[in-house]
Amino acid sequence: MPATVAQKIHVHPLANGLTLVAEEMDWLESAAFAILLPAGCVHEKPEQAGLASLTCEMLQRGAGERDSRQFISDLENLGADCSASVSVTHTTFGGSMPCESLPRVLELYADVVRRPHLPADQLEDARLSCLQEVRAVEDDLGQRVMQELRKRYYGDPWGRSSQGRTETLTAVKQKDVQTYFNDRIRPNRGILSIAGKIDWPQVRDQVEELFGDWRPGLDQLLVETKPERGYHHIQHESSQTLVGLAVDGLSYANDDYFQLRGAIGALSDGMSSRLFTEVREKRGYVYSVHAMCNSLKDRGSVIAFAGTTPEHGQDTFDVTWGELKRMYAGIEQAELDRLKGRIKRSLIIQQESSPSRAGNIALDWYYLQHVRTKEELQALIDNLTVKSINGWLEKHPPQNLTVVSLGPQPIKVEGI
Predict the structure, then answer these.
(1) CA 95, CA 85: separation in Å to the nearest integer?
(2) Rounded Cα distance, 13 and 20, in Å
(3) pTM for the predicted model, two decimal places
């Protein structure tokens, strides 16, 4: 984006609770959108795990005047590359396209979320697709470890997996899909984000026309269970040992989030990071090691993962946990300088991508009820100092360590 061009960010709340957030990016020839509806797997009944994903799959099998085949054909003819997903919190639809196709694509997705066919004769095909996702996760040992780690750290329902389980997906009926659609695919607390080469008044008016009379639903009170945490081993005869760790972190909505993010950058961002250097380069223990901030609306965690061989499983855990603890003793100026450079490069790249901006402004609105400009983000990064980060780390030592391992033998974890 040219330095002289100010960002044009718009917010338009609809009366039914849906919020439209948009950014004009006039130098592009593309546009992108994301629809985030509060219909994630936290809203499933435990005996219907996977229902949100199955409903999401069914929503894309014809809507409005189009059957499933015509829906896909029309998207292809419009040059739209679209997808859908389910997370803990949201069912999300989104995509990118040439800017002139945006109005037609929005019409299609208004039908998807408001007038889907949910064809009963395609339920089994949709179920099979979801079951394949479950099996793919079961075969991916790293995903199994991370799913179990989130489940044990966050508890239910925030630690759920959106894929569900084979036995619960198999039991879901057509009426369950219809009920979930009726109850959860609603506009209140939803977000529609649009970024790219757009005419803002035209987009705003079209969104009002397409979604303005969409009737809101009822909010659901979630019941939380206490997390198990501690240490858990998944016995698996394998040539690998995988280890996941989690400790308390911060939500992206927290004012101090970037203090923690700066520290995690020193720990795990790039080949100069501590984890890569200490665990992989110096010792050659692992084929994969990383750490990240994991964020929910009102809570968060720091999660680390390492994959190694059974003979190095214990040493890999000891060094990874040791480096995570050492991070809380403080970072150095050179580490912070490298991190700032990486983040600024990332911000520049995002400004050249309408899909990235559509996703980012939607998440900004979800977490902050505000869209951060490039200048605001740069100021947050520029204002990070070794003193501010290390001061925060000193006051917030790692708490509630949760560990999950997978392999032929467990590891020893002291103190939990």
Answers:
(1) 12
(2) 6
(3) 0.93
